[in-house]
Amino acid sequence: MEETLAHPLEKYLRTEKLPHMWCPGCGIGTVVQAFLRAVDELKIEQDKVVAVSGIGCTGRIPQYIKFDGAHVLHGRAIPVALGIKLARPDLKVVVFGGDGDLASIGGNHLMHAARRNADLIVIMVNNFIYGLTGGQVAPTTPKEATTYTSPYGPDSKPLDAVKLVSAAGGTFVARWSTAYPVLLKESIKRAFSHRGFSFIEVISQCPELFGRINNFKSTYEIYQKIKKVGTIRRGISPYDAKYDWNSEISLGEFVNFEAPSYYDQLREIIEKAKGVKE
Amino acid sequence: MDLIWTTGGPQGSGIDTAAHIFTRAVAKAGYYVYGGREYFSNIKGRHSYLTMRISDTPVYSITEKKDMLVSYDAETVFSHFLDIAGSGALIYNTDESDFKLSSIPSMVSPLKVRIADSLGKAGSDITVKAVVEYLNSKGITTLGYSANDAVRELGRRLNESQLGKVRIMINTMAISLSTSILKIDKELVLEAIKDTFGTKSLAENQQAVNLSYEISSKWAWHGVTLNHMPVNGHRILIDGPMAVALGKLAGGLTFQSYYPISPATDESVYLEGHPTFSRNHSGEGNVVVVQTEDEISAIAMANGASLTGARSSTATSGPGFDLMTEGIGYAGMTEIPIVITDYMRGGPSTGLPTRNAQADLLQAVYGGHGEFPRIVFSSGDHIEAFYDAANAFNYAERYQMPVIHLVDKSIMSSYAIIDETLIDTEKCKINRGKIAVGKQDGYKRFQLTEDGVSPRSFLGSPNRFWLTGDEHDERGHILDDSVMRTEMYVKRMKKMELAEREIPESEKYLAYGSSSSRKIIVGWGSTKWPIIESINRLQKEGNEIGFIYFKMFSPFPKGVKRLLEGKEIIDIESNYLGQLGILLGNEISVNPSYHALKVNGRMVSASEVYTAIKLMVENGEKKVIMNGTA
User: Do A66 and A102 meet the contact criterion of CB atoms below 8 Å apart?
Assistant: First the structure.
């Protein structure tokens, strides 16, 4: 009888949905693995996690991981997640999204969730491009890069989501890359224990749509580029962190401090309101 | 007994509060009141006015001719004197007698031209004095007082040298002049003031009321007076957003997200303002109310909360309703129970932000890409709005679909004095629909069933599931298999057939008046009471006419066809296209022959509906545009 070895993380996977839809060499798998390892190591109850995502390649994560989940409209993962969290504060609500989903069409929600210090973990996989729609320029695309809709380069400079979220009020802001899966996993673990808004950007490779057109001939080549451009900087301010395709994309935890989370602030209001006579 | 009383003044000057005091005082004297508020999209300064109808029986509409116009500024006089009834009265401030029409910058010039034309003085300037003379020539009573003298005298009596502090009571004084000649007991006015402000400044207000009663004692008024009548039971003053908010609370609302927009905001303000309004007296309210960053987020958040089992809703108005379209479609696709209250205002675009319209009907029924099941229904008065707001959650959860509750701005910004027993929370039953209780092996959130409804489970419950806005299989997984696509599509749409079968006819439409008349009127929302009142009046004159009042538009009550087939249909609505008429044609192949339509943004009055019906029935006019500004 042939013996098959179960994957150590199999209990977290909807194996009936495999094979997954991601391209060979895609960085999203690394992010999924880092996330599942974090959950496993922290021994978080599987029924207490809800994964919410919008549209795009990253948006498909909740389909493959065995938690309650919602795959919602393009850009709307954060408000749906916050609705879930407010109605069930005992749940751990995690948002997965790409750079287009969270920083472009969902940008307003990202900004305001950070401002509120909403009790959410947001993991943004940044591959510099719109993947699922076929390789269009994204707000994160470096000036030096080419896409199908910006054959002469993007019309404007990219958005650094780390600075945006920090400035808006996020209390845990980090950036890692697929080249550092263990550090990413550790950071996700810290996000789970952080009270308030946790934002983790993961610089990731899209060999098919971003790699090819930018002359990276293989997954290996673009992975090497991501490895090289990502520089770990400990203890620097998010405003000193670099987002520069030519020289450096700074990695690390740039913000991590305690402040009343959205839930805490609502509880404060409830206490105040209790004193009010109808 | 029927009296129309109007007051006006600059927005933000306390005119609303003064009208509240008047309404409460009249209610305490034993009368019912229904009042509409008209205002500009402005916080302070522009002319706003309130029209109150006072009656010894419950009323839910207003008429145009004013029996009493109470003013203290020239703009109010100019804006409304043409609507004073022949037997009516104007109370005005003589300090502004020489004010010219041309000197009022806030009045729009087309209105100025219309006023001059009406007086036969086209091209020339008009003063308040000229208006008073004109009214006198028509036999209308004009009652003048000097606001400056009154303020000085009040200052003297209160020992207050800073007259600015006294002047803020001018509204109270002006309305007291009218309660005085209507023979309402001074004590009732003071009680009403106490209800409104508490005991703060009660002594000062008492002096103000006394002075008004002294001033008006010299006036000769031979018109109607409000003799005190016994009040049976308790009566309450209610407005539209309050009725809807209370209905939602009675219906078990636990989550409301919204983005500020006129005129829907008041509902969420009411909910925010009553944070300890609970069912279990815990001192903690039942509802999380969240102001979001935009309407897209408001509907998304409400959807998220609903997925955990919270009864959730949002309230918005035209432009916000547009933005919510994607979230409503998502709820349709993923079978999320959600309630959207749309306060209909004048569109398109920003349109008339503070004025009435019934022009969102087709959007509510057909809006959004693709096809999805939904309930669309509306309310015709405050009491209906209360029960409908509560019942909306039952529709949403029983059929697992978005429910769009349409309410007209003109009802929502109106006040009504009603018998408290008419708002009975005991009558609001909660039906949560099919729910998967406990852990179920092989749970399928979108299980194909006979009636299309699958047992619902909640995020964070033992039945683990996920869902997607993509087409999916029974477990909720993304799937674009052609066979499953059809099965899942049909399953969703079948729920509409279930709703059509199950929801009683009485929740879909009601028939009033004669069922045998050759002509029959159709209408919905805020035209309900103006039409009922008109057909009652016509009946007294010997003209029998029927009226089908529509409440539900999706699923469309096809059973109504037997009442409309072979009739000549008169469609009365506040829109340009005759949207209910279009639905009748689409759904049951009957088409209106006559239309009375209104797009000027003002409330539809009973008197203009009556006139319009006469024009259609007696003169055979096919299309009447109503232009009243009651």
Answer: no
Nearest to A68 among B254, B277, B466 (CB): B466
Q: Which residues of chain A have a CB within 8 Å of the CB of B284?
A: 270, 274
Residue A212 confidence (pLDDT) above 60: yes
User: For chain B, what is the domain count?
Assistant: 4
CA distance B338 to chain A (A): 13
Question: What does the pLDDT read at residue B109?
Answer: 82
> What string of H, E and C letters represents the secondary structure of B416-461?
EEEEHHHCCHHHCCCCCCCECCCCCCCCCCCCCCCCCCCCECCCCC
The CA distance from A122 to A174, in Å, is 11
At residue A22, what are phi and psi to the nearest 5 degrees?
A: -80, 150
A196 to A120, A167, A171: CA distances (angstroms) = 7, 15, 7
CA distance B389 to chain A (A): 21
Q: How far apart are CA B548 and CA B524, in angstroms?
A: 9
Query: Binning pLDDT at 50, 70 and 90, where does residue B108 land?
Result: confident
Instruction: Say yes or no: A71 contacts chain B, CB-CB below 8 A.
Output: yes
Residue A108 in contact with partner chain B when CB distance is under 8 A: yes
When CB atoms are compared, the residue of B312, B460, B466 closest to A91 is: B460
Number of structural domains found in chain A: 1
Task: Tell me the CATH number at A59.
Answer: 3.40.50.970
- The CATH number that applies at residue B131 is 3.40.920.10
Contact B466 A67 (CB under 8 A): yes
A87 at the B interface (CB within 8 A)? yes
What is the rounded distance in angstroms from the CA atom of residue A28 to the CA atom of residue A142? 20
Contacts of A274 in chain B (CB under 8 A): 275-276, 283-284
- Is the CB of B306 less than 8 angstroms away from the CB of A83? yes
With CB atoms and an 8 Å threshold, state whether B301 touches A88: no
**B276 to A79: CB separation less than 8 angstroms, yes or no:** no
B232 within some domain: no
Q: Which two tokens stand for residue B9?
A: 């003044």
Residue B604 to residue B414: CA distance in whole angstroms: 12
Q: How far apart are CA A273 and CA B390, in angstroms?
A: 25
Q: What is the mean pLDDT of residues B119-133?
A: 86
Q: Judge if B204 and B319 occupy the same domain.
A: no
Q: Determine how many CB atoms are found less than 10 A away from the CB of residue B161.
A: 9
A183 touching B (Cβ < 8 Å):
no
Nearest CA among B312, B337, B27 for reference residue B196: B27
Residue of B nearest to A51 (CA): B466
Q: What angle do CA B244, B247, B249 make, to 5 degrees?
A: 115
Secondary structure string (H, E, C) spanning B127-174? EHHHHHHHHHHCCCEEEEECHHHHHHHHHHHHCCCCHHHHHCCHHHHH
Within 10 angstroms of residue B111's Cβ, the number of other Cβ atoms is 15
Instruction: Kindly state whether residues B205 and B279 are assigned to the same domain.
Output: no
Burial of A33 (0-12, 13-18, 19+ CB in 10 A): middle
A–B CB contacts, 8 A cutoff, strictly below: 139
* Chain A environment of B300 (Cβ under 8 Å): 72-73, 76, 79-80, 83, 109
Tell me the C-alpha distance between A55 and B468, whole Å. Answer: 10
Query: For B457-469, how does the pLDDT look when each residue is reduced to its tens digit (9 = 90+)?
Result: 999 999 999 999 9
Determine contact, residues B163/B151, Cβ cutoff 8 Å: yes
Nearest by CB to B468, from A46, A71, A278: name it.
Answer: A71
What's the pLDDT tens digit per position in B499-540?
999 999 999 999 999 999 999 999 999 999 999 999 999 999
Residue A2 inside a domain? The answer is no
Residue A3 within any structural domain of the chain: no
A 238-267: CB under 8 A from B: 266
